[in-house]
Amino acid sequence: MSAPAGWHPDPESQGVLRYWDGQVWTNHRAPGQAATAPKDQSALVALGFALAILFPIGGFIVGIVLERKESWWILTLSLLFGFGWFYVFLRLNSGY
Fold it and tell me: Where is each DUF2510 domain found (predicted)?
C-alpha cells in the first residue's frame, strides 16, 4: 500500500517537500517547513515548584483542622515529603 496523494518530504532532497500523486513523484516541489522552536516550559516548572510547596502545607492544614490524636502522622508525612521535594528541586540542575 502506497502513501496517500499529497505533499511529503522529498526522498531526493532534504528540507524540500515534493508532491506524490498516489503512484509517482511529480516535478512539483515546495520549501520544507522550518523547524519550530521548542515551547517555553518555564510556566510548568513554576507550577511544579508551587505544587511541591503547597501540597505539604495543605496536608499540614488538614492535620491541624482534624485535631485528632492520630493526625501526627499527617504532619510528619507532609513535612517529610515537603522537605524531600524541596531538596530534590534544589539539587536538580534544570537550567532555570
Answer: 5-37
Question: What's the whole-number average pLDDT of the chain?
Answer: 77
The answer to whether 32 touches 16, Cβ cutoff 8 Å, is yes
* Cell numbers for 35: 523547524
Which grid cell sits at 45? 516548572
Query: Hey, what's the cell of 32?
Result: 520544507
* pTM of the shown model: 0.35
**Residue 1 and residue 15 in contact, taking contact as beta carbons nearer than 8 Å:** no
- The answer to which of 15-19, 32-36, 43-47, 64-68 has the lowest mean pLDDT is 32-36
Q: What is the pLDDT of residue 94?
A: 55
Q: Domain boundaries in the chain?
A: 1-35, 42-91
**How distant, in Å, are the alpha carbons of 33, 35, 41, 42, 47 from that of 38?**
15, 9, 9, 12, 19
